[in-house]
Structure formats: C-alpha cells, structure tokens
Design a protein that fits this description.
Helix 1 (about 5-15) runs parallel beside helix 3, helix 2 runs antiparallel to helix 3 and helix 3 runs antiparallel to helix 4. The chain is built from four helices and no strands. It is globular, with a radius of gyration of 12 Å. With about 80 residues, it is mostly helical. The N and C termini lie far apart (about 35 Å).
Length: about 80
C-alpha cells in the first residue's frame, strides 16, 4: 500500500468526522509528495473532491475535479 493510499484512508476518516480542512490538507500534502505515476492519485483526488464538496469549498472542489478529469482523459486511449 502506498503512502498516498494511507493518506486517502485517513482523509476519509477525517471527512467522516467533519474535519474537512484537515482531510483536504492531508490529501494535498500526500499528492504533492507522491510520484506522478502513483496509481492511487485518482482515488486521492476523489477523496479530496468529496471533502471539499461537503465543506462547501467550491474552488478547492474544482481543483480536485479538474485533476480527476485530466487523469481520466490521460488514461483513456479512445479519447482523441
């Protein structure tokens, strides 16, 4: 399990406790430290998006959504 996966699990628990800012900060730090090819980046961005949406942080949610969209587009060979 990667440290990014661990951070995603902890962030989900923080979100469950309504500690949204802590969850977002943890995800952002873990994403910054993770290598670009880490397969857990998509899940981490999704968890960050959920926390930001629940917190009502629309600008932060948009950043996570954009990262998800970019990653999904990169991984889809049919997208041209």
């Amino acid at each position: 399990m990667s440290s990014l996966q661990d951070a995603t699990k902890v962030a989900a628990a923080l979100r469950g406790q309504k500690k949204y800012r802590d969850a977002i900060d943890l995800i952002e730090k873990a994403l910054a430290a993770a290598p670009p090819e880490d397969f857990a980046r998509l899940d981490a961005n999704r968890e960050g998006l959920r926390a930001a949406e629940e917190a009502g942080l629309h600008d932060v949610a948009k950043r996570f959504a954009d990262a998800i969209s970019l990653k999904e587009t990169e991984g889809d060979p049919d997208e041209d």
